[in-house]
Specification:
The chain has one domain. The protein is elongated. By secondary structure, the protein is mainly alpha-helical.
């Protein structure tokens, strides 16, 4: 049975997250999908919890601070947090070049507020990435 409107189906096939940004549909430099993102943040949060347990007797504020420091430090130095790197992702600036320090700092503050991270566009970029001028891609 043929689709009701083949033009719409073809348009959906020719569109993918990151297309408007000039990124490929799959493979290296394609937009990292939601499952990887959630797993990556879970890994990063687990590391922050373990450090908080070991050094601060699990203090919620300390856990958030450890998480934020890990994000800024690793993204600035390695273009990805531990969770990102384990799952084959990296944070890159849209303009190209080095991500710097201010972009990870802005991105992390907004990520810690949670709401900006769960508001995203059709390219699957969260508000925290949009405001920092970054995009989370596959390596």
């Amino acid at each position: 049975m043929a689709p009701a409107n083949p033009t719409v189906d073809r348009a959906q096939q020719d569109d993918w997250p990151g297309r408007q940004l000039g990124l490929p549909a799959s493979g290296p430099r394609s937009i990292a999908r939601l499952g990887r993102r959630i797993a990556g943040i879970a890994i990063d949060w687990a590391i922050a919890v373990l450090i908080s347990l070991a050094f601060f007797h699990y203090n919620g504020g300390a856990t958030l601070a450890v998480f934020a420091i890990e994000q800024v430090l690793f993204i600035s130095l390695l273009s990805g947090s531990v969770g990102h790197l384990i799952l084959g992702m990296r944070v890159v600036p849209l303009a190209g070049g080095w991500v710097g320090v201010w972009r990870p700092a802005v991105r992390t503050v907004l990520l810690c507020l949670v709401i900006p991270a769960v508001i995203y566009d059709k390219d699957q970029r969260g508000l925290h990435d949009k405001l920092a001028g970054t995009v989370l891609v596959r390596r």
